[in-house]
Design goal:
The complex is a heterodimer. By secondary structure, chain A is α+β, with helices and mostly antiparallel strands. Chain A is 40% helix and 24% strand. Chain A has four domains: 16-235 and 312-395, ATPase, nucleotide binding domain (Nucleotidyltransferase, domain 5); 236-311, Actin, Chain A, domain 4; 402-510, Sandwich (Substrate Binding Domain Of DNAk, Chain A, domain 1); 514-623, Substrate Binding Domain Of Dnak, Chain:A, Domain 2. In chain A, the strands form seven sheets. In chain A, strands 1, 2, 3, 4, 11 and 12 form a six-stranded mixed beta sheet that branches. The two termini of chain A are 32 Å apart. By secondary structure, chain B is mostly helical. The chains are: A alpha+beta, B mainly alpha. At the A-B interface, helix 10, helix 12, strand 19 and strand 22 of A face helix 2 and helix 3 of B.
């Protein structure tokens, strides 16, 4: 026994970290255990947390499966695919905004906000709720071990803003982010370990909302990413949308125009289209059903796999084009790829598999569950980061070039795409005017020639430059992309020899104090969620006790004195009313429950039936 | 070339970290690319040896192996690893390697000296014409097909330029020597060749892109 206890001690909270796949459709937690990564899930459950949120009338937020179920009942207050909004401004999300059943706005720093039941939420806050749910479930699966260190995965093609947003979401959830890892790279870790692979590997990752392709060289435990490409707005959601569009066109003859504009109806249609798409992966034909009894809509339409393939051919072609670009950047031809690995639920689509196979001229691997492999890889990376092994060395790249806007609005590239990270570049700046104390510059990310076509990472301001004639100050600005793919900018004044304090302020995204405030309110929300859960449990318990009391009264009412009987009946009526009153919180409900229990004690004592006694006190027989 | 570890005294393969005690260092001023990878300055570099050194040094300084260290050590690992990757990237590219050598020996920069070798200039005109014709033509046309010939031509020229550079750099020229200026002219030619090859690649990708 002693050894086992020692192991338990070694597994103390400080030595373990979770790997979390924060997906567009589903999220999942995993951990390294006994020499391999495992998915963490409650008994008898897959562990997937649907990345869905539902906003209740009481002002609480349901997350995961409960939220997804509510989508059918109350689609107007249910959100999906939050990941598509991470690190984005309103102008970037026009197409996606049409699928959101609530108004959107923007903070002063250009962060999208969802308005639900009179409250505004940033994608960071909403993602933090999903992360908390995954984390909570994982900790439960570990028997209540409170793990706070995590590795979180992001699409490889996520830019700096999207990565920052993901990290902020984790901070709001109160988690300590050890590393942001690219999804295809994480997948290759899980695959590489599992299959002991060597050679050149292409990872094709088509998820719910994003597409990535990464070309890696795997050799003696070194996983070196040679190139990556992708599209952070291309995934299973887009495949669903092709079916939705057909359905909308044909439904126009059947329903009122206002129905087709109804956000709730569209949400239902989207879910039905997703179901149909999934069926088409196994069946040659499938039906898209929509039924809205209240408006009398009962509609179904048969889709053949052939028709679906034709509708989605252009989407698959876009992914293949990304593959060709990644191959060109890696200076490899398709024939030089030794293995192709499929990741992400959307790679279950037969046409995707067929066309990937055709491009690379070999059968892709899909032995590992495409929905789990990213979380498993994140767990491997968490294990490495906790000092668990040095057998694996992961060398990833930055997906997009980094540049500075020049005078004419063009981009001067300072870090090329597909540079191995961490990486850095130093750029010299000087002043144009005598005594100039500050310099502004604009950092962008992307491959386009003009700054306005690239993603703006922020306008930076150098201040505190010593008063010198124009052109004299020599300010070295260092751009560092860390192992998370995140940019930091530091500056040093070199001409005067003394290190003047140059300050740099980024001006996009969430500020530290905003994250701080959200952190507090997230904890508050978590408490409210906990309260809502407790209240729901109490309502159920009161119901059970009330039924048992009624049964008891019918059997033994005549044996009770009038006063006791009145007490029981009053407490019963009060508790039943409380269970129905949605305004009561868990404290009030607890009080009613306890009063009912007290009032029914004489009745319970009277009844010799053990089963009745157990039910009345709300306990199981074996606990009595 | 090698120095001793400031904390355990072992001989260092890179000034950025010690394989024996696991120390990570960020010396100031920062080591040159050659120093970072523990190599003597030379134009000819064995790519396999370069990669071997990068991986060996990475196994010491990479931030992944310092995930549970103090924030200070983590920051140093980030910086050391970035220096290492920057050095490797530069040395793995013959053009950037040669450019670094020319500048470190006080030779002309590319803005100080813009000319290319004379014989080379004559061909540039022809190549430019072929490229323009291909750009204006439809994918699949004869002008596009001619790109393959052009590409082969450019690749063999590139090889010739690299050979010329290797000759100029063996042995390494004296500081301020005239051959540095010749090397710069070859480098200008090399830059032209690489830009043109990239454009051909882009045209090929564009031909296969979904419209």
């Amino acid at each position: 026994m002693g050894f086992i206890e020692l192991n338990v001690l070694n597994n103390s909270v400080n030595n373990v970290a979770l790997g979390i796949d924060l997906g567009t459709t589903n999220s999942l937690g995993a951990m390294w255990k006994d020499g391999r990564p495992i998915v963490l899930h409650p008994e008898g459950d897959s562990g997937y947390v649907p990345s869905a949120l539902h906003f209740t009338e009481q002002g609480t937020v349901l997350v995961g499966r409960e939220a997804r179920e509510m989508a059918m009942i109350d689609p107007a207050h249910t959100l999906f695919s939050i990941k598509r909004f991470m690190g984005r401004g309103l102008a970037d999300v026009e197409a996606d905004a049409r699928n959101v059943p609530c108004p959107l706005s923007e903070t002063v720093n250009g962060v999208v906000q969802f308005e639900m039941r009179g409250k505004k939420y940033t994608p960071q806050e909403l993602s933090s709720l999903i992360l908390m749910k995954v984390h909570d479930q994982a900790c439960k699966a570990l028997g209540g071990l409170e793990v706070t260190k995590v590795v979180i995965t992001v699409p490889a093609y996520f830019d700096d803003m999207q990565r920052q947003a993901t990290r902020d979401a984790a901070r709001i959830a109160g988690l300590d982010v050890l590393r942001i890892v690219n999804e295809p790279t994480a997948a290759s870790l899980a695959y590489g370990l599992d299959q002991r692979k060597q050679g050149k590997v292409a990872v094709y990752d088509l998820g719910g909302g994003t597409f990535d392709v990464s070309i890696l060289s795997i050799e003696d435990g070194v996983f070196q990413v040679l190139s990556t490409n992708g599209d952070t707005h291309l995934g299973g959601d887009d495949f669903d949308r092709t079916l939705v569009d057909v359905a909308k066109k044909e439904l126009a003859a059947v329903v009122r125009p206002s129905t087709l504009e109804d956000r709730a109806f569209l949400q239902l249609l989207r879910l039905a289209a997703e179901r149909c798409k999934i069926d088409l992966s196994t069946d040659p034909e499938a039906f898209l059903h929509v039924s809205l009894p209240e408006s009398g809509v009962q509609w179904r339409r048969k889709f053949t796999r052939h028709e679906f393939d034709a509708l989605t051919a252009h989407l698959i072609e876009r992914t293949l084009h990304s593959c060709r670009r990644a191959l060109a950047d890696a200076k490899l031809s398709p024939e030089q790829i030794d293995e192709v690995v499929l990741v992400g639920g959307s790679t279950r689509i037969p046409a995707v598999r067929a066309r990937v196979e055709k491009l690379f001229g070999r059968k892709p691997h899909c032995e590992l569950n495409p929905d789990e492999v990213v979380a498993l890889g994140a767990a491997v990376q968490a294990h490495v980061l906790m000092g668990g092994t040095r057998d694996v060395l992961l060398m990833d790249v930055t997906p997009l070039s980094l540049g500075i806007e020049t005078m004419g609005g063009a981009v001067a590239k300072i870090i090329q795409r597909n540079s191995t990270i961490p990486c850095q570049a130093t750029e010299g700046f000087t002043t144009y005017v005598d005594g100039q104390g500050g310099i502004d510059f604009h950092v962008v990310q992307g491959e386009r020639e003009l700054a306005r076509d690239c993603r703006s990472l922020g306008r930076f301001k150098l201040t505190g430059i010593p008063a010198l004639p124009a052109g004299m100050p020599r300010i070295a600005v260092r751009f560092h992309i860390d192992a998370n793919g995140l940019l930091t900018v530091t500056a040093k004044e070199e001409s005067t020899g003394k290190s003047a304090r140059i300050e740099i302020k980024p001006m996009n995204g969430l500020t530290d104090s905003e994250v701080e405030t959200m952190l507090n309110s997230a904890y508050k929300n978590a408490r409210e969620d906990f309260d809502a859960r407790r209240a729901a449990d109490l309502r159920t318990e009161i119901g059970t006790m009330a039924r048992a009391t009624e049964r008891g009264l019918s059997q033994a009412a005549s044996d009770l004195d009038r006063e006791t009987r009145r007490d029981v009946e009053e407490a019963l009526a009060a508790a039943k009313a409380a269970a129905l009153d949605q305004a009561l919180d868990s404290t009030a409900l607890q009080k009613r429950r306890d009063e009912l229990e007290r009032a029914t004690l004489p009745l319970a004592a009277l009844l010799m039936d053990h089963v009745a006694k157990a039910a009345l006190s709300g306990k199981r027989l074996d606990e009595v | 070339m090698s120095s001793a570890c400031p904390s355990c005294g072992a001989e260092l393969e890179t000034p950025l970290g010690c394989a024996r005690c696991g120390g990570v260092f960020t010396p100031e001023p920062a080591p040159s690319p050659f120093e970072a990878l523990g190599l003597a300055v030379a134009f000819e570099v064995d790519p396999k040896e370069l990669r071997r050194r990068l991986l060996r040094a990475s196994r010491v300084v990479h931030p992944d192996y310092h995930g549970s260290s103090t924030p200070e050590v983590r920051a140093r690992a980030e910086r050391a690893s970035a220096l290492l990757n920057e050095a490797h990237e530069l040395l793995a590219d013959p053009a950037r390697r040669a450019d670094w050598i020319v500048r470190s020996l006080g030779g002309p920069t590319e803005s100080e000296q813009r000319e290319m070798p004379r014989a080379f200039l004559m061909e540039v005109l022809e190549w430019n014409e072929a490229l323009e014709a291909a750009r204006d033509a439809q994918p699949g046309s004869p002008a596009r097909a001619a790109l393959a010939t052009l590409e082969a031509d450019l690749r063999s020229q590139k090889l010739a330029v690299l050979t010329a550079l290797a000759r100029l750099f063996t042995p390494l020229p004296e500081r301020g020597s005239k051959s540095l200026s010749e090397a710069r002219a070859q480098l200008n030619a090399l830059r032209y060749l690489e830009t043109t090859l990239t454009q051909i690649e882009a045209l090929r990708l564009e031909a296969s892109s979904p419209s």
